[in-house]
Write a structure and sequence with these properties.
This protein is of the alpha/beta class. 43% of the residues lie in helices and 14% in strands. The structure holds beta-D-glucopyranose.
């Protein structure tokens, strides 16, 4: 199947590591021009863009904090002007936040997670949709999580932000659908990236995590990136307003393999 991404223009947030890095690589190797957003680690952004350029892709790095509306708007505007439009926005930037029970949560930590994971995608999508709706094409892929449906004790800000992003995406899909613009979510399960390295680098924690995955192993970033490439391509032209899970069936409550 030809997923026909050649020459498309994609802005990917949080692209200097983890899933954002893998998605950028997959899209670049399919001929997509990449707007590589990062926030805290310019050295990682340089490393990733160096690797992407080897594929022949055009890569432009842009430092911005997506949780700051002005920075997010300026970034989208920059790429729209530079490229003369935008085809794809992948809202990937996100953090898990610090473990804290809801009644013990530090307010600024709680708000930080929601601002990065929910407000950030909204700010970027708001600007991108103005152009996509006017040009009558485009796709926004929001990276959520199995925790858009699975509660996760100690991570209330994270689960709330991902569930909120899921519903925001479906609403935006309704709003922009008649203009030919797709908005959807990709929900990864436990994928081996720096975000959960503290878990998978410890054998006991890794065993506990894997026991929650019916497929019996963690996922690799490339397994998410390949699905992302399909979803933003015209091959997925009738998929919108929904969430595609890439999770080894994690959301289906592995603990119910026995008993009940
Ligand atoms: C989180 C990871 C976690 C996974 C499964 C993801 O959304 O970012 O830290 O391992 O969900 O719980």
């Amino acid at each position: 199947m030809d997923i026909s991404l050649k020459g498309k223009r994609a802005l990917i947030t949080g692209a200097s590591s983890g899933l954002g890095e893998a998605i950028s690589k997959e899209l670049a190797s399919s001929g997509v021009n990449i707007g590589l957003n990062y926030h805290s680690h310019p050295e990682d952004a340089d490393r990733v863009s160096g690797e992407l350029e080897k594929t022949g892709a055009e890569v432009i790095e842009f430092r911005a904090d997506v949780s700051d509306s002005k920075q997010a708007f300026d970034m989208v505007d920059f790429f729209v002007k530079k490229w003369g439009g935008i085809d794809i926005l992948v809202n990937n930037a996100g953090i898990d936040g610090k473990h804290a029970l809801s009644w013990e949560a530090d307010l600024s930590e709680w708000e930080k997670v929601v601002k990065i994971n929910l407000f950030g995608p909204f700010y970027c999508a708001r600007e991108a949709l103005k152009h996509m709706v006017a040009q009558k094409k485009g796709v926004i892929l929001n990276i959520t999580s199995v925790h858009e449906t699975i509660p996760w004790s100690g991570y209330g800000s994270y689960t709330a932000s991902k569930a909120g992003l899921s519903m925001l995406s479906k609403t935006m899909a309704q709003e922009a659908g008649s203009s030919g613009v797709r908005v959807l979510c990709l929900a990864p399960g436990a994928i081996k990236t720096p975000i959960n390295q503290n878990v998978w680098s410890n054998p006991e924690n890794l065993n506990d995590l894997v026991s929650k995955i019916p497929f019996g192993r963690m996922g690799e970033p490339e397994e998410v990136a390949r699905v992302a490439a399909f979803l933003v391509s015209d091959a997925a032209s009738y998929i919108t307003g929904c969430t595609v899970f890439v999770d080894g069936a994690m959301k289906d409550y592995a603990n119910f393999i026995h008993g009940g």
